[in-house]
Amino acid sequence: MKSAVLIFPATEVLGIKRNATKAEVKKAYHKAALSSHPDKVSESERANAEIKFKSISKAYEILSDDDKRDLYNAQGMSAFEAGNRGGMDADVDLEDLLAQMFGMGGGTGGMNGGGPRASGLRKPRRGEDEEHPYNVTLEELYKGKTTKFSSKKNVICSHCKGRGGKEKSKPKECVACHGRGMQQGLKSVGPGLVTQETVVCRSCKGTGNIYRDKDRCKKCKGERVVEEKKVLELYIPRGSKEGDKIVLEGEADQLPDQDPGSIIFNLVETDHDTFRRIGPDLAADVHINLNEALCGFSRTLIQHLDGRGIHVKHPQNKTSGPLKPKSVIKVPGEGMPYKKSELRGDLYLIVNVDFPDSAWLKKDGRMEKLRELLPMPMDSITAETVDEVEYEEVASMAGFGAGNEGDQWEDEEDEGEGGQPQCAQQ
């Protein structure tokens, strides 16, 4: 679980009360600055001391200025966050400096609204989203899909209303985190390197409080949430594509004092045996024979994604000549649908011409008949020297370029020591 960001009151940085006077603020600043001055620590601790000294200086800058102090009283430390720093230097993130150097809790409000230490953690207003990949076929994307599934998630305990304890019982402050709900830990970032990070307290799970065993809620056992099954409905609009997100708002795990996040499904389009898709357009290979390529045809060539047969009429006339291999037939409006629209892309049919086999040609003198019907053979090209060669019929270009692997030039001359060629004797 990712930890929320901590924001500490400027008063706590200087160790003063909320209603401290200007004189008390100044006195506390001088005391804190003197004890944390970078010149008073060893060289190894100087970098951290400089950061802490800057934090103290910024806290004093806020509390010693009437305008900034009024802004702090009204909005707390949020008034001095990035983009709304109230005059603070843009290159200094006070929130990060305090979180790293002081490890303190405390209320997030200003001097007139502190609150208990347990509320020192600014909890996110919204829980984390849950993202999952979801495989869909091209048929489902073409027609749209609605499906129901059972989901397990944490919901706020209805018995204790998310408190974790009995109604009249009072929790104790968590000893592990001192009521802050968060702890400082070390995280490995490489061999011999660690960095400090803020993590949710394992003992109290971020609440800052712990109920005694006898005071815990009997239903949730102090966890504040219970697991629940729920049937959810997933709707995929027709025309959706790879990478689209289907969001089930508010259906992620629940936590007290937070709005639940969403369950997000990332659509992953699976490969199709017949169709290929680019945007709203579809492409597919179709097969015709030599008769159809030369003389035309009128038949159903392919079955579409919704089960319909696509009938194409290609007559042989003055306007349409023979279809050559890899010719393309474009069928407007038979591609993928656009979402929330009646418009559709186009369907591109790539023509493959199947030639008759040798057994067919040898029957009933068909070879001779074709010679009479088809155009005469083409003339030979002219060349000064002509070689009549033998050939091999191959099914593919798989071996093309294979002989290049051993085509390496080598120096046949002997090389002396150090890789240098030796001079020949005169």
- Report helical residue fraction: 10-25%
Number of helices: 9
What is the end-to-end distance?
82 Å
Strands ordered across the widest β-sheet: 10-11-15-14
Largest sheet at a glance? Answer: 4 strands, mixed
Return the structural class: alpha+beta
Strand fraction: 15-25%
Average pLDDT, rounded to a whole number, is: 79
Task: Spell the H/E element sequence.
Answer: HHHHHEHEEEEEEEEEEHEEEEHH
**How would you describe the shape?**
elongated
| Poorly predicted spans | 1-8, 85-122
Q: Please count the beta strands (DSSP E, at least 2 residues each).
A: 15
Task: Describe the protein in words.
The strands form six sheets. A four-stranded mixed sheet has the order 10-11-15-14. The protein has a three-stranded mixed sheet with strand order 1-9-8. A two-stranded antiparallel ribbon has the order 2-7. 21% of the residues are buried. Helices cover 19% and strands 24% of the residues. It is of the alpha+beta class and 426 residues long. The radius of gyration is 39 Å and the shape is elongated. It is built from nine helices and 15 strands. Helix 2 (22-35) runs antiparallel to helix 3, helix 3 crosses helix 4 (66-75) and helix 3 crosses helix 5.
Q: How is the topology of this model organized?
A:
Elements: H1 10-14, H2 22-35, H3 46-64, H4 66-75, H5 94-101, E1 130-136, H6 138-143, E2 145-156, E3 172-173, E4 182-190, E5 193-200, E6 209-210, E7 225-236, E8 245-248, E9 263-269, E10 275-278, E11 281-289, H7 290-295, E12 296-303, E13 309-315, E14 328-331, E15 347-354, H8 358-361, H9 366-373
Helix pairs in contact: 2-3, 3-4, 3-5
